[in-house]
Specification:
InterPro entries: DUF4280. It is built from 1 helix and 10 strands. By secondary structure, the chain is mostly beta strands. The chain has one domain.
């Protein structure tokens, strides 16, 4: 059995985020998996596809750096605003194309401009068992 594909509602975690987030996939590719829109590598747009991860603790984030400087060097997390400028990095060789781009599988990673690595915790795809 291969790696599951990712769909809307998948749970994501950023290495500098303090809370998990959910992936939002718009139904532009008209492909469903487990009844939800399936994701491809281009589903990386901040605040559209990638929702905030609570608070950000990355010192590379300008808001965190400013708050930390104001607190005399004590790391001060600030609200997360994802900065995902590049597409997802595939988690293996492409197996399916959606909208001309490889489908996102659960091993894919996304880099945040502030140094965070975003990974898929739960791909959102479920397997139904028929008795």
């Amino acid at each position: 059995m291969g790696c599951p594909h990712v769909c809307s509602g998948a749970t994501l975690q950023c290495s500098f985020g303090m809370a998990p987030s959910m992936l939002n996939v718009l139904p532009v590719n008209r492909t469903l998996t487990s009844g939800m829109p399936a994701a491809n590598l281009q589903d990386h747009i901040p605040l559209v596809n990638i929702l905030p991860f609570g608070m950000c603790s990355s010192p590379a984030n300008p808001a965190v750096a400013a708050a930390t400087a104001a607190a005399l060097g004590v790391l001060t997390p600030m609200p997360c605003i994802p900065a995902t400028a590049a597409p997802w990095v595939p988690g293996g060789p492409p197996s399916v194309l959606l909208g001309g781009m490889p489908a996102l599988n659960a091993n894919g990673v996304l880099m945040c401009s502030w140094g965070g690595v975003i990974k898929v915790l739960v791909p959102g795809q479920v397997q139904e068992l028929i008795p």
